Amino acid sequence: MTDATRLRSATSPTRAAEARHATSTPVLPRELRADEEAARLAAVRRYDVLDSPPDGAFDRITALAARLLDVPISVVSIVDTDRIWFKSHHGLDAEEIGRDPGLCASAILQDGPWLVSDAATDPRTLANPLVAGELGLRFYAGVPLTTHDGHNLGTLCVIDTEPRDIEPVQVDTLRDLASVVMDELELRLSTRRTVALESEMRRSAEDVARTLQESLLPPELPRVPGLELAARYHVADRAQVGGDFYDVVVGARDTALVVGDACGRGTDAAALTGTARWTLRTITSQPWTPAAALARLNSVLAATKERPDQYCTVAVAAVRRREDGVDLTVALGGHPHPLVVRRDGDVLRVGTTSPIVGWRPDVTYREETTVLHRDDVLVLFTDGLIGRSPDATDDTSVRAALAPLAGASAEAVADALDRAVESRPLSDDAAFLVVGVR
Amino acid sequence: MMSVREFSVASVQVRGVAHLVVLGEVDLQTEPRLVDAVAKIAADVSPAPLVLNLEAVTFIDSAGLRGLLRAQQAAEDAGCAFALGRASEPVETLLAVAGVEEWFERA
């Protein structure tokens, strides 16, 4: 009873008499208004308990309730739209019953315990099928399962087939057990929410990583006359931005091809990746050669890197058209050799090795020129393509994968390398740029 | 989920030279432990020279190379001459690809 009703009862003799009358001749509580029932059902849905699998915690509570109150039947019920579903049923072989008034369906319409000493004679319950039917229930005591925001989801109730009275101390026991049921339901709800929140956080980390990654790669490869381009990026951990990058910059005379790998993962690697890519874009917008570009990049990174323990490996290639194909000039800053698949099936390494980029300020970089002919295919890649196996410390497996692809289109070669990457667990990001000479 | 890497470092002093033997995988996960071990031993033995034996390294990647470079830096900061001893094929391959063979003294 709220303070307001108590106050009214005290000051209005007529209402107080009515109230006494109401307790002596029990009547069914008023039905919930449509909006109240909708809010209650929303709460039932929120706890997501309907039709959930059996749960030992609730079975222990109903067994305990039956034992403590010395009754054969105890039930944790959840009142759904048109049925009463049993989360746990002790001593009663039923999963659910209809939502007929008198028992659980009425118990949830008010806040205190719902007590029926003899259902067969009680006007509130005598028409209920469980009472009038062959089950012949006589005694019912139920306490509503009330959420912290005031909705009654269902009840914890005890039932007997004999009429009986219930002591106030037993009602207290039932009420205590009902609050244990409610604690269990809250616990399951908050666990589900935590799990959902974690997966949401993981998703949003993945979104950030993807956005950042996309900003580090060209949105679309440019069209270059005489060349056919394909690029791929395989991410080892979608929640972390990787350190691999590639770029294609079309210049007046030379087209720059870049593939690089910043040491490490996460935002530090991404920052270095971004700096490296944009620095190379700037350098290659002026007259440049691959070796000079790497030397410039090296001194920029060695001077500006925020953490002193970072470096990257970069392959820079200049492609210049000639009568019968292209001149390919490659400089490697600590990066695996790009591979060329000749039209006749030979696979060869191109470029010449110089040290990693950004660790020491004064480093000399060298370059090497190779002539590529029509239908030759060039593949620049990061070491993620090589993989992480004790017997694959160099590019042997990549060369073997490329050998049968002589004369194939850039897309077909990229697809074949995709399959090679996808055939094993990816421990590091893998990026590759495939260039066909047409 | 990252798996647990096999990695350990053992040290032994022979005729005034500290030898560190590295076993297992040197990558993003284990590289800090390599650098810590070298820094700690360098502080203990300085100015004795320090040799990193990499014969038993089964895998090394670019983060592992960073570990070698940082270890070199830590040893030299502590006043120790630093050299790489024998190294497994994965290590030699990485040093060659990274173009840093000449950056390390070899013992």
On the 0-100 scale, what is the average pLDDT of chain A? Answer: 86
Q: SSE order of chain B in H/E notation?
A: EEHEHEHE
Give the SSE order of chain A as H and E letters. Answer: HHHHEEEHEHEEHEEEHHEEEEEEEHHE
**Looking across the biggest beta sheet of chain A, what order are the strands in?**
3-2-1-6-5-4
State Rg of chain B: 13 Å
Shape label of chain B:
globular
Secondary-structure class of chain B: alpha/beta
Distance between the termini of chain A: 88 Å
Number of strands of chain A: 17
Most extensive chain-chain interface:
A-B, 26 and 20 residues
Helix content of chain B: 25-40%
Main pleated sheet of chain A: 6 strands, antiparallel
Count of DSSP-assigned helices of chain A: 11
N-to-C span of chain B: 38 Å
Structure description:
By secondary structure, chain A is of the alpha+beta class. In chain A, 36% of the residues lie in helices and 25% in strands. In chain A, helix 4 (56-68) runs antiparallel to helix 7 (168-215). The longest helix of chain A is centred in the middle third of the chain and has 48 residues, at 168-215. Mean pLDDT of chain A is 86; it is low at 1-24. Chain B has 107 residues and is of the alpha/beta class. In chain B, strand 3, helix 2 (62-77) and strand 4 (82-87) form a beta-alpha-beta unit. In chain B, helix 1 (31-45) runs parallel beside helix 2 (62-77). Chain B is globular. The mean pLDDT of chain B is 91. The chains are: A alpha+beta (438), B alpha/beta (107). The A-B interface holds A 261, 263-265, 309-311, 313, 332-337, 353-356, 359-360, 383, 388, 390, 393-394, 428 and B 28, 58-59, 61-63, 65-66, 69-70, 89-90, 93-94, 96-100, 103.
